[in-house]
Amino acid sequence: MYRYDHYDQAMVDARVAEFRDQAQRRLDGKLTEDQFKPLRLMNGLYLQLHAYMLRVAIPYGTLDSRQMRMLADIAEKYDRGYGHFTTRQNIQYNWIKLEDAADILADLATVEMHAIQTSGNCIRNISSDHFAGAAADELVDPRPYAELLRQWSSFHPEFSYLPRKFKIAVIASESDRAAMRLHDIGIRIVEKGGMLGAAFYVGGGMGRTPMIAPLVRDFVPLDQLVTYAEACLRVYNRHGRRDNKYKARIKILVHELGAEEYTRQVEEEFAHLLGQGIEPPLAELERIKDFFPDPAFSTDAPTDIDRSDSAFALWVDRNTHPHKIPGHASAVISLKPVGGIPGDATAGQMRLMANLAERYSFDECRVMHTQNVVLPHVRMADLHAIWTELEAAGLGSPNLDTIEDIIACPGLDYCSLANARSIPVAQRIQERFAETGRTEVLGELKLKISGCINACGHHHAGHIGILGVDRKGVENYQLLLGGSEAQDTALAKITGPGFDEEGIVDAVEKATDVYLDQRQGGERFLDTYRRIGMTPFKEALYG
Amino acid sequence: MKILTGNDLKTGAVVWWDGVSWSIHVEDAVDAGESADDIAAREEALRRVNVPYAIEAEKTENGIRPAHIKDRIRALGPTVRPDLTLKPADPEAGNWVI
Amino acid sequence: MAELLRFRDDEAVDHPAVTVDSFLGQSNANAVRIEPGDDARALLPHLDQVSLVEVNFPVFGDGRGYSAARILREAGYTGELRAVGDVLVDQIALMRRCGFDAFEPDKPLDDADVETALARWPHVYQPTTDGRVPIRTKRHE
Questions:
Q1: pLDDT tens, A488-522?
Q2: Chain A residues with CB-CB distance to C67 below 8 A
Q3: How far apart are the C-alpha atoms of A440 and A425, rounded to whole Å?
Q4: Could you say which of A7, A121, A278 has the minimum Cβ distance to residue C139?
Q5: Of A6, A308, C49, C97, whose CB count within 10 A is highest?
Q6: How is the beta sheet containing A45-47 ordered, strand by strand?
Q7: C35, pLDDT greater than 50
């Protein structure tokens, strides 16, 4: 894992002092709310429905046990005993006081954490593949590149007042587990002629105008990576729309200019910036890489496990992912118990996850964009012990990538932007499918719910998506089908008129009926939808 | 009726204008009528409230009911965590927001 | 009149700046004012005759002026670069990094706050033309 040196620590400490001063000036009336808002947002502090909310950055989702325990301590000391893991691999707390915010940031800084740029019109926390360093199919570990970009983007002098927020994801495998092409910039580390480089996809995003990022450059040499990103951002900062906040994301600029013209402008800026000494020395990338060595895996770890306990065997089949080292696996801790709140974890659960990471996973865990937590490097021989502890803590749901593993934004229960509640809908769907025993029969089915058009719940990218809207003051839910945020990125299409809360649960069930009726061979829901199209689903829903 | 709401500047807590000060209970809200904007501006300048705004509400036999579901959820708390709402002992409280 | 905060020793230009359009249409002005939508690069062929560039921030959240400033400095402009308009104390440290060396905010800034803001950052991550040595260079010296 990356470790701060005295430079990184000094920068984070300076930020805490800066925010303490800003918060005090707000409390003293020297700053208006309009002036304070962008400053608090750049430190992750929102004003939500019930209180301030603090979003803490978890760079590329990676945490050690000490950090996870601090997250638990903060939940207890300053909040109401729990936190919410988000779709961008961060955590947020729902009941924060402005007067406590600087103290929380100071506590975080003691474990090399912060809330820098987790909101605001700036470059947000860089996300990555939650199986980085563990997946059998990756070219290299993408996290050193994410860390390089984290430092470049932190307190960037030119890009702190962008037209709109800016999200970057970095991956290094063919499989996309980070919704890379639905980011403002998606970077895939690739190999060409024996050299490593970066493919840049620019202008993707969800929100009210979802777009899949086009490829802008298929290979940027690694010693020009940061400079190319700087060029992409400068063109956006200068020419992105500022007249309408709904058209201010880079996806609109790329779309309006056309990918070709945007690329031309980037290349021109890039040619100029190459002469400006923007790029960190390669020695810096090497220094960062040294923080991400393979842990000391045992080379002779046993590969067979006792599957006589069927509940355990189901969890292994559902919640573990192949590891690059034989005898190991990445084990996913589901934060989606039936009837629970997707992504929520209590302080006690966080501490348990910290303990498991420390004992079984080389002191590392990862937050997934699906709002679960993964222990990336566990020995298969330890899986039963891990599962036993998870089960006892209500964290053993064997439902990864099933219809119970729902992504849901906080929705109108917490969020001031929401139009409808998301969490109760997720709970009703989970309960319906758990009751009917359909979950396992349906296999992989990614269902994602957003409580408003901003799409924090990734509804455009769900095999089944649900969008909550406000219809004359009443919550209403639209159904979408056919999205994907994996390497086969696709945007879901709306089926037709929306439903009330009860109706949307029925509608989801009807859609799965169509699938079960029509599926061939080993097709997933998404495969069947792609083969048969929308019509049979529409007939079942509205016919 | 027109009632005033906002969040406490220091704590972020949802508050309602009760005619003299700010209460966390929507039942205490009073009709601010024509003076809503003036009160909001004055109270915000005094930093006794953050981003206040006026909303429509009606007086019912069960107390004051904000017209929009968002403000009813603000008045109660998250419906998915009844234990954290202002009415943790009332299992039916969540139905009030719908 | 807004107060002028200046980090230069030379004499300040004492006449009003002209718009980019009128500057490009005449040849004798030496002070020009860039609005957010203007292309700073249009000035590059004429930098040797310019002593003052004002960059206007009509609203503090419009960050185009930061790019304008860096573009001018990267092209070798050494004259005064003045941020004017809705310029707030929490922005001036970043503006200094982008090359601004004068500030004329609509609302005067508190001197103590300015001093605190400019002394805030012990190090920097990114290189700019301000000459500060970035962390990634210090690490490998």
A1: 999 999 999 999 999 999 999 999 999 999 999 99
A2: 158, 234, 237-238
A3: 20
A4: A7
A5: C97
A6: A45-47, A52-56, A91-96, A82-85, A344-346
A7: yes
Tokens 């926390």 -> residue: A125
How many structural domains compose chain C?
Answer: 1
* Number of domains forming the structure of chain A: 4
**pLDDT value, residue A71:** 98
Residues A508 and A453 in one domain: yes
The values of phi and psi at residue A53, to 5°, are -125, 135
**Closest residue, chain C, to A156 (C-alpha):** C126
- Whether residue A157 lies within 8 A of chain C, CB to CB, comes out as yes
- Inter-chain CB pairs, A–B, below 8 Å: 70
Residues of C in contact with A284 (CB under 8 A): 136, 139-140
Strands C31-34 and C52-57 turn out to be parallel
pLDDT at B54 over 90: yes
In a domain, A1, yes or no: no
Domains of chain B: which residue ranges?
2-97
On whether any CB of chain A is under 8 Å from the CB of B77, the answer is yes
* Backbone Cα Rg of chain A: 23
Q: Which of B14, B67, B69 sits opposite A475 (nearest CB)?
A: B69
The answer to whether A51 contacts B12, with C-beta atoms less than 8 Å apart, is yes
The range of the structural domain enclosing residue A168 comes to 127-289
Q: What's at A182, amino acid-wise? A: L
- Token pair 């304070």 is found at A36
- Report whether A444 contacts A403 (CB < 8 A): no
Q: How far apart are CA A498 and CA A537, in angstroms?
A: 14
Question: Mutate which of A161, A223, A241 to test chain C, going by most C C-beta atoms within 10 A?
Answer: A161
